[in-house]
Amino acid sequence: MTNQHGISPVALGYLITIPLALVVGYCLVNPLSMRSIAVIAAVMSVLVSPIILRWHHPALVLCWNAALVIFFLPGQPMLWAVLSGVSLGISIVSRTLTKKSSFIHVHSVAMPLIILLGVVLITAALTGGIGGRALGSDTWGGKRYLGVLGAIFGYFAIIAHRIQPKDAQWLCSGFLLMGMTAIFADVAFILGPSFYFLFHFFPVDVAFHTAASQDTLKRSTGMAWASQAAYWFMLLRYGLRGILNPSKPWRIVAFFTIFVVGLFGGFRSSIILFGILTVSQFFIEKLHKTRYLPIFAGTSILVGMMLILFAQQLPLSMQRALSFLPIEVHPMARSDADGTLDWRIQMWRIVAQEVPDYLVLGKGFGFSGTDYVLTQEAIRRGMFTAYEDTLISGNYHNGILTTVIPFGLGGLVCFGWFCWAGIMVLYRNYRYGPDHLKNINTFFLAFFLARLSFFLIFYGQFDQDLMVFTGLVALSISVNHGVRTRQDLQNEAEEASLDPPPETKPVPVS
Questions:
Q1: Would you say residue 470 has pLDDT above 70?
Q2: How far does Cα 473 stand from its chain's mean position?
Q3: 69 and 76 in contact (C-beta within 8 Å)?
Q4: Residue 136: predicted pLDDT
Q5: CA–CA distance from 365 to each of 83, 133, 138, 148, 359 (Å)?
Q6: Is the dihedral of CA 384, 385, 386, 392 positive or negative?
Q7: What is the distance between the alpha carbons of residues 401 and 295, in angstroms, rounded to a whole number?
């Protein structure tokens, strides 16, 4: 078959693909040059554009917690941050062309995020702009701006489409389970140079923390993150009620086994966050009034006693995670943990004195790359204390400080406003949501409260944690098709009562 110009589809295909193959082949002669990477990325983008246009929203939801980077872009940004902008752009263009809005408008959440976006952009403009090492600038910190912008854009990108009931369970499960991809960075490091190509796709920062402790505690950062993603999924899928169900003993065994395996990361925060989350969900599910209270208490005590009794026989990384408890652990594990706590407390005392200087206009995320490198070298030589480079980069290991110093009182107020509005949305969806979303809405509320408590009290990094909060609220809105009300619940009950009963065949009389 030929078209009106007498050209067959096969010939037309060859006419397009052969020159394209020649261009790509020429670029592969020097594949690491920026020109070659740009050309190949452009070609791949054109080839996958139909898939992106069709599946950009599910892809964004699934990649939100994935430890994946885009290696061919400057700075290797996280995949979820780039997809946020792409998905939001596609949704806006689609709305413009079709003149049909699919965005779910929740004014109480949108307003603080829009104002926060303005605060971030104004602060960046007044403090030297958004620079980055990958862009050849001496001012670093651009990747942190990308984290905040991606979190805000991602919220609007996720609420641009309603997730249908048949897709809610697998999308929400994938939203959490994709966090297990962090373990591949550890796998690449353990398997050696032959597998270092995996660092093109998975963040090298995860493996860096693992490599830094191989001569001492042998910590596994990727395993800790993967463990968290796994037990988060179990809480979402089954709820604590389902996990503690005596007729399904494998669930509670798997739940606590996954948690214990995560202690190989050596993070005290693993235990703290696990405790806050499980207790929050336990009370939100109102299990303290049921027979599950003794089951939960007995199992927790049993696991705790086993960890305490055999603490000194555990790997050093697990002992480090337990070191904040009043138990005996190896001196090396306790010394390593106490050392990080000491320099953080010293740093907070210094940084707290700077807060009044940045209440009106924040410091922003930009900092001098030259000062940072020279300070790190001075630390290695023992000339500076361990936290001096952190003071320059702004990674203060504290949620409030990493919010108020970069963006002042305006940023802190907007973030607090958003958190309150987000809690109200999650609570209403939990209270008035449909039955088939009960476990999902319960987990989202418990998880948001647990992460917010952890962010404010124990550890937080604004540019990294904001996406946790915006992603949860946006996905709840998308799954529930907005913010649920008591009237929605009453209308569904009335509709169910008006449905005719199913037809039954008459039983023959013998």
A1: yes
A2: 13
A3: yes
A4: 66
A5: 22, 13, 13, 10, 15
A6: negative
A7: 40
Longest dimension (CA), the chain: 99
Tokens of 397: 């290991």
Rama region for 192: left / alpha / beta (φ>0; ψ in -120 to 50; rest)? left
Backbone torsions φ then ψ of 201, nearest 5 degrees: -115, -25
Q: Are 102 and 158 in contact (CB under 8 A)?
A: no
| Rounded (10°) CA dihedral 294, 296, 299, 303 | -140
Averaged pLDDT of the chain: 85
Asked if residue 173 lies in contact with residue 58, where contact means CB atoms within 8 angstroms, the answer is no
Residue 328 and residue 230 in contact, taking contact as beta carbons nearer than 8 Å: no
Q: Which residue intervals of 244-368 are DSSP H helices?
A: 249-261, 268-284, 292-309, 316-322, 331-352
Distance of CA 224 to the CA centre of its chain: 14
Give the pLDDT confidence of 132-170 residue by residue, as tens digits.
776 667 778 888 999 999 999 999 999 999 999 999 999
Q: Are 142 and 73 in contact (CB under 8 A)?
A: no
What is the C-alpha radius of gyration for the chain, rounded to an integer number of angstroms? 26
- On the 0-12 / 13-18 / 19+ scale of CB atoms within 10 A, 450 is buried
Q: Cα separation of 438 and 429, whole Å?
A: 9
What DSSP string describes 345-399? HHHHHHHHTTGGGGSSS---S-EEHHHHHHHHHHHHTTSS-TTHHHHHHT--S-T
pLDDT in tens, 362-375: 999 988 777 777 77
pLDDT at 318 over 70: yes
- How is residue 508 written in tokens? 């023959």
pLDDT band with cut points at 50, 70 and 90 for residue 510: very low
Bigger pLDDT: 10 or 100? Answer: 100
Whether the Cβ atoms of residue 126 and residue 361 lie closer than 8 Å to each other: yes
Lookup: tokens for 155: 């919220």
